Amino acid sequence: MNSVIYGQTFGTINHQFTIVTLVPKLKKNQYAAVQSRFDNTASNVVNAPIYLESPNEKSINPIAIAKDFRKIYATLRVNRPDAVIGMFVVHAYPLVLLKRVLKFSLFTLVSGSDIATHQGVIWRLIRRTVFRSSLVVFTVAKRFSAQIERESGRKAIVIPTGTNPDYYKPLYDKDGIRRKYGFDICDFIVLSLSSLVELKCVDDIIKAVEIVNTKHPHTKLIIAGEGPLRPELEKLSAKLNVECLFTGYIGESIKRELYNIANVYVLASSSEGMPFSVMEAMSCGCVCICTDVGGLSEIINDSINGYLTQPHEPHLMANKIGDIMTLSELQLHLINDKARQTILHNYDFRKLTEKMVSIIMQKSSREFLTGT
User: Fold this and answer.
1) Are 7 and 17 in contact (CB under 8 A)?
2) Is residue 84 classed as helix, strand or coil in its secondary structure?
3) C-alpha–C-alpha distance, residues 219 and 237, integer Å
4) Of the ranges 69-73, 91-95, 325-329, which is most confident?
5) What's the angle, vertex CA 183, arms to CA 178 and CA 184, rounded to 5?
6) From CA 294, how far away is CA 140, in angstroms rounded?
7) Can you give the pTM of this predicted structure?
8) Which fold, 174-346?
9) Which CATH topology does 2-163+349-370 take?
10) Residue 343 in contact with residue 282, Cβ under 8 Å?
């Protein structure tokens, strides 16, 4: 729900924003259900989702694509923006065709997953076209900036994603919150929060906890999120005798509570950008174990403010969890505090978004004045 998080931050900036989310028509009800969990009352932010005729980006139907293009054009014509931020580069190609007709400046934000999951020749050509047609390209990590320059010759401005440390913060009554969710004080809780899809590799987390359980049977797992692999993951946890709570979709307040009761937050993805969940967990002072993919090595300093491991290595992940179990309270406190300080100093979402919007306003004004 990146659009929700950006919407919350845009509400603090003195400017008018319209957030347009492209949603496959088949997922309209799912999108509405998730959107209803969030309250965005900012008067300067309007949500205007477009429900696409194309079922997914792998399906090529010229009629559906034409209808979707017309919907995007109609939305832009009604709103008449000065600047448009394409937040997923492989979906931004209609903006390249429309920007001169409707006279707006195009900016592109590369989150990382849009590069990692679209590796074909056609996608690289689309990305290069979008990059070269954008007034400024933003990206969330240095690793992606280097790839953008290799693909297109464009230098991207690195502005990481972040979180709101005033909301995602340590809570006091952690024992009470544990009891609320049915956990004992002595339980060692491992938390995972993500979509239940293949690239998130949640099965590796279940396998890692099963290994840890051979020595520490009080280890419990929480899997928060929803997706097509949920039935398969439920069967795996039962087969491996891993005590696991599957929560489904959860709201912001529940997320914050789970980050606070977890002893460890684990992200096992084979591909990532700069995931919000890791920064939320760190901001709550939760120890994170993450695979060294995307921009995660730029935020986590291994063994200092969290831990890094490799994808598809549940034994390595289990070893990391076991190492954390042996730390003293003082050692844990130091890691927790350094994790939160990392967010406070470098990943405050409001400051980062304000910086991006400031660059956009300066650059778009200059483009209108110079006609370039």
Assistant:
1) yes
2) strand
3) 13
4) 325-329
5) 95
6) 9
7) 0.87
8) Rossmann fold (3.40.50)
9) Rossmann fold (3.40.50)
10) yes
